[in-house]
């Protein structure tokens, strides 16, 4: 065996022994069960009654003269529940976590069919937004069609506003007709058109 390989193995052995020795001392210094099981995951408490020991707290696996070692382990329990109505499962966990330990909670995320979906399209109908408004008006039927590929429970609403009180964004001498969107009207905070709907025809009427 090459000398450098032997030296490396010796260093690993010495490091392990020193680590175990240090942990053993940390365990053996604990005088109560609570201190013992919270100082480190490697410590365990001898719960035998009527036994005289130098230390009841020792490294796990070192209680050769003890028949009842208390070294609780962390655990995850998933309660038995009906299938969840949400896209995330499980919805609850019962976790027992020992001090200084860590646990990973597995979560499944799935696509739930026919979840309620509301989309509200709010137009800025300033004169400068004329091209964008025309593009959405032309795609109004496709918007609902695409959403209905995701869920059958879809509602779409339409509203508008103008907040630029200057030319060429708004023209105060032009009134906006009720029930349709016309760029370039006077300023206003908000107007709603039609109703929330899943009808392509109704949405098309609202945005034109």
Automatic annotation (TrEMBL):
The keyword S-adenosyl-L-methionine does not apply. SUPFAM superfamilies: Plexin repeat, vWA-like. One of its GO terms (cellular component) is cell surface. The keyword Signal applies. Keywords: Cell adhesion, Disulfide bond, EGF-like domain, Glycoprotein, Integrin, Membrane, Repeat, Signal, Transmembrane, Transmembrane helix. It comes from the Eukaryota. It is found in: Cell membrane; Membrane. Coiled coil: none annotated. InterPro entries: Integrin_beta_N, Integrin_bsu, Integrin_bsu_VWA, vWFA_dom_sf. PANTHER family: INTEGRIN BETA SUBUNIT, INTEGRIN BETA-PS. Its main location: membrane. The lineage of its organism: Eukaryota, Metazoa, Porifera, Demospongiae, Heteroscleromorpha. It is a single-pass type I membrane protein. Pfam families: Integrin_beta (PF00362), PSI_integrin (PF17205). It comes from Geodia barretti (Barrett's horny sponge). Residues 113-207 form the Integrin beta subunit VWA domain. One of its GO terms (biological process) is integrin-mediated signaling pathway. Residues 1-24 form the signal peptide. This is Integrin beta. GO terms for molecular function: integrin binding. Residues 27-59 form the Integrin beta N-terminal domain. Belongs to the integrin beta chain family.
């Amino acid at each position: 065996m090459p000398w450098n390989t032997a030296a490396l193995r010796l260093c690993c052995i010495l490091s392990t022994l020193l680590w175990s020795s240090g942990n053993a001392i940390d365990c053996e210094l604990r005088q109560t069960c609570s201190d013992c099981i919270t100082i480190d995951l490697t410590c365990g408490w001898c719960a035998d009654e009527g036994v005289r020991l130098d230390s009841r707290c020792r490294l796990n696996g070192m209680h050769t003269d003890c028949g009842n070692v208390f070294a609780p382990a962390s655990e995850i329990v998933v309660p038995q529940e009906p299938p969840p109505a949400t896209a995330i499962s499980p919805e609850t966990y019962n976790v027992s976590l020992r001090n200084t330990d860590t646990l990973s909670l597995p979560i499944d995320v799935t696509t739930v069919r026919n979840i309620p979906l509301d989309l509200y399209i709010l137009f800025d109908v300033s004169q400068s937004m004329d091209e964008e408004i025309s593009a959405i008006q032309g795609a109004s039927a496709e918007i609902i069609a695409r959403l209905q590929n995701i869920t059958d429970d879809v509602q779409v609403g339409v509203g508008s506003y103008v907040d630029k009180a200057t030319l060429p964004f708004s023209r105060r001498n032009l009134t906006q007709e009720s029930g349709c969107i016309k760029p370039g009207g006077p300023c206003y905070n908000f107007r709603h058109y039609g109703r929330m709907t899943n009808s392509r025809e109704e949405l098309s009427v609202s945005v034109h």
